Amino acid sequence: MSATTIDTMAALTGFSREAVEELSRLKGEPNWVRQQRLAAWAVYEALPFPQRTDEEWRRTDLRALKLDRLRPFQGFGLDGHVPAALADPTDAAATVTAGDLNAGVVVQQDARTLRTEIAPEAAAQGVIFTDLDTAFRDHGDLIRQHFMTKAVPSDFGKFEALHAALWQGGSFLYVPAGVTVELPFRAFVRATEAGGSVFSHTLAVLEEGAEAFLVDAYGSPSLDGQGFTSAVVEHVLAADAKLRYVQVQDWGRNVWSFMTERSLLADDATLNSLHVTLGARFSKSSIAARLQGKNSLAEMLGIYFGDGDQFFDHHTWQLHESPYTTSDLEFKGALKGSARSVYSGLIKVSEGAQKTDAYQQNRNLVLSRTARADSIPNLEIGANDVRCTHGATISQVEEEHLFYLQARGVPRTEAQKLIVEGFFRPVIDRIPVEEIQGFLESAIARKVGI
After folding, report:
1. Are the beta carbons of 276 and 268 closer than 8 angstroms?
2. Contact (CB, 8 A) for 178 and 145
3. For strand 227-237 and strand 197-198, is the pairing parallel, antiparallel, or unpaired?
């Protein structure tokens, strides 16, 4: 290990063009990948940092985010090699109970892939499920066609451009036309390095008539020092494709988490998604379904539960770009301590997207006097033959309800747990996976304090 290498690695604090070049060098990437990264870095430098005057960032305070103090990537020691000592990889699966029935598994820790598996019967049908580095190496044509080009282009925004320049880790799912895989594909991303950055990317491409179930789980312990994550999720669904997608975010309490997800739906395509937000000090998620084809359908569910000083910000878009499309969104959140949430949702119907049927609902349960929830539903209608409705509520737990249960021998904390679980139950019951229902019930109990 030369002194020059040590000096170079030690100097890589904060984000820079040099960090982008060093990451590409350490990963041994071909020139076209390096050029893609550098082009994205140029976009990042050119775009302004989000301001409170920007509508999407109006209620989001980024002053405590110290990007210049973060290491730009993880998984390499000072000599540029992967450290030999790694935590038990089974920890990465703790966020969601994995079980034994999977179509494929990708486990990553600090951006290093520890395990990749795919069921032989799925592989025999041409299905690809692997880590992103392997996908770039072995399936370059598919990757170049879809990676940050259509769903989330690298010039989408400031943090998306940074992600495109420094992505490291993630998974790629490809399902050929007409192939149905009922068992879930699971990807686990875990971070264990304090002061590091995680840029995990998920790319799912389903060809015509394909069906799949994909689970993403993010988690880390609460490490010393600020952490940073920037995730991008891209779903590309061809005609008549069907994707069920579940994402669970349970980062440690010092993490600042940014996540951008875009789903493109062609004719008759169906997306059923669930987003669970439990962890991080700060979490900002931008989630959109673009219904580009006729008769496409998007079901978008969300559960979030903040406590302590957590801040959760969800922005959703239901973008109806063709006629006869349907979207159904239901996001529910609970808050305790001094936690705060912001929800802003937009149903946008393009001109000519007649017969659109869209529903948006955000409901919040406030469990303490110092918690706060803001909810801003929006409609933007460009067609005259549509049905679009939305609703938003913010309420506290009624003392009468607690008293009723306590009067019947139920302890106060257990009574509160029952009320909160009942609040979330309509969303939980819409998830046709018993294992995930059980996980959510346990997570809610943990948050309430049982």
Report:
1. no
2. no
3. parallel
Determine the 3-state secondary structure of 303 from DSSP: strand
Residue matched to tokens 């993490």? 255
What pLDDT, on the 0 to 100 scale, is given for residue 402? 80
CB 345 within 8 Å of CB 312: no
CA atoms 164, 169, 175, 181: torsion sign = negative
| CA-based nearest residue to 18, from 33, 2, 34 | 34
Q: Compute CA distances 284 → 229, 237, 257, 369, 422, whole Å.
A: 10, 25, 6, 23, 26
This prediction has a pTM of 0.92
Nearest by Cα to 317 from 367, 263, 244, 251:
263
* Domain span holding position 165: 3-293
Pairing of strands 128-131, 112-118: unpaired
Domain end call among 260, 293, 326: 293
Which structure tokens are listed for 163?
Answer: 């992600």
Domain boundary among 259, 293, 327: 293
Q: Answer whether 198's CB lies under 8 Å from 224's CB.
A: no
**Quick one: how far is CA 33 from the chain centroid?**
24
Query: Is the distance from CB of 190 to CB of 216 less than 8 angstroms?
Result: no
Q: Which residues of the chain have pLDDT under 50?
A: 1-11, 77-97
Beta-bridge mates of residue 199: 168
> Which residues partner with 117 through β-bridges?
105
